[in-house]
Design brief:
This protein is α/β, with parallel strands linked by helices. Strand 1 and strand 2 form a beta hairpin. The longest helix is centred in the middle third of the chain and has 32 residues. The radius of gyration is 33 Å and the shape is rod-shaped.
């Protein structure tokens, strides 16, 4: 009813079913346990903000202008809210719109809800700000040394206020850090996405067999046979690295890798050992461009072995990157390498 006790007809759907919420009756959506779902019984924030604007201005037209909608749209929104609640909220007249007694009470409740929503939004913004203030990246060695610097420079141009920390390690270590919540996004070089992670290919890479110009292999006329490569002690990255995984898989059908000549924990160390003449090595093409150009290393063709790999961005399963991590992922896919 209206504020002066006048009886109002109950709003109905086209089939005659009442549309208002309690106490006006009508349909309800029920959640688990049989309890009516709250969002079907409470007006949305936009409608409540409109009601508060009407209370401030005493005019539906002025309230509509404040919230940025047309007066007919405002009238429709108020009528919808009245049907939902089952009470009249406004007395309308040529002199303006006045809150009914029920409307004044609902307006008081609406004010509390809107203030709580504003506090909620401010808190969420603070959380986003804290998330966006830092980015923890874990990356396998080749990506950390040869691809990430360019990606991070591009990210800094877009997010100058984000502090970035980079943890470099082999692909197994990257997975451990992500699963231990010690990194927000990771990059790995192995054959597949590590268990417990989701990922996407961001670049491609090839491995090359290299040796110093003084090594006998550097004077060969023909390519190496897979069995010869497998049986020769090499300077290699450690187990768990993406480079080692690809090489192990490629030579498994040819007797597997011989005992390494040296087993080192970084691409830089493997490269230095090869340049010094310690022995042949297997390295990413990304890492040896300068050494090949200056003839400090010689690339050796291998027949019948595919030494190509995918480079992936990875994150814990079901937790796709957000904030700065999402932006970094977008940059890597916009700037593919290999």
């Amino acid at each position: 009813m209206s504020g002066d006790g006048e009886t109002r007809s109950e709003a109905t759907d086209d089939d005659g079913t009442p549309t208002g919420g309690p106490p006006g009756g009508g349909r309800r959506a029920y959640g688990e346990g049989g309890r009516p779902q709250l969002h079907h019984r409470v007006p949305d924030l936009g409608a409540l903000e409109l009601l508060l604007a009407v209370a401030r201005h005493g005019s539906l037209g002025a309230a509509a202008r404040e919230v940025g909608i047309t007066q007919p749209a405002a009238s429709s929104r108020v009528r919808s809210m009245e049907r939902q609640l089952g009470v009249a909220l406004l007395d309308r007249s040529p002199r303006g719109s006045r809150l009914t007694d029920a409307g004044a009470l609902v307006t008081d409740w609406a004010r509390r809800i809107v203030e709580a929503a504003e506090a909620f939004d401010a808190g969420a913004e603070a959380l986003r700000g804290r998330r966006d203030s830092r980015l923890r990246v874990a990356a396998s060695m080749t990506i950390a040394e040869y691809l990430l610097p360019g990606w991070l420079i591009a990210l800094r141009a877009e997010r100058p206020g984000t502090a970035v920390s980079l943890q470099a390690g082999n692909s197994a270590v990257v997975a451990e850090r992500l699963l231990g919540n010690e990194a927000d996004i990771g990059f790995v070089e192995g054959l597949a996405v590590p268990e417990g992670l989701d990922g996407v290919v961001v670049a491609h890479d090839r491995l090359a067999v290299v040796a110093a110009p003084s090594h006998p292999w550097a004077r060969r006329r023909g390519p190496l046979a897979p069995a010869e490569l497998a049986s020769t002690p090499l300077v290699l990255r450690e187990r768990g690295s993406g480079t080692r995984q690809v090489l192990d898989a490629a030579l498994s059908a040819h007797g597997g890798l011989a005992q390494p000549l040296l087993e080192l924990a970084s691409t830089t160390a493997v490269k230095a050992a090869a340049v010094s003449g310690a022995g042949p090595a297997v390295l990413s093409e990304l890492a040896i461009a300068e050494e090949l150009a200056s003839h400090r290393l010689v690339a050796l063709p291998v027949q019948g072995v595919l030494l190509r790999r995918d480079l992936r961005a990875v994150w814990p399963t079901g937790h796709r990157p957000t904030g700065p991590a999402r932006d970094l992922l977008s940059l890597t896919r916009a700037r593919p390498a290999g």
